[in-house]
Amino acid sequence: MAKPEGGLKAWFGKGPKGDWVDIGAPKKKGKFQACGRKSAKSSKRKYPKCVPRSKAKSMTASQIKSAVSRKRSKAQGVGGKPTNVKTIVKRKTSGSKSRNNKRKNKKG
After folding, report:
1. Residue 77 lies in a domain
2. Among 24, 69, 70, 95, which one is most buried in terms of CB atoms within 10 A?
């Protein structure tokens, strides 16, 4: 089995694969802090929600707020594994509900 090139340093560091930022810790002028924190006990920062910088730049303020609140509302580190949530959630439209109701009415 081949070892991935660069490992975690390449993934989370700057470069084509990396440059991840914490969207839950904004700086001034729309910039973001680097992903992660030193330790949960000594850090004042809340649990990070990390995304690639390119994704963070394309997200609206409401999308960022939604993603961060969904991440922080879940229990973190259950079973020693990180807790993941979708960064952007697709909302169901009312049009799909009416189609489903029409299908149910035809069957019954």
Report:
1. no
2. 24
Residue 36: inside a domain: yes
Domain count, the chain: 1
51-108: pLDDT as tens digits: 988 899 999 999 999 999 999 899 888 888 888 888 888 888 776 555 555 555 655 5
Residue of 32, 72, 71, 37 whose CA lies nearest to 52: 32
- The angle subtended at Cα 82 by Cα 60 and Cα 16, nearest 5°, is 55
Q: Which of 2-16, 39-53, 77-91 has the highest mean pLDDT?
A: 77-91
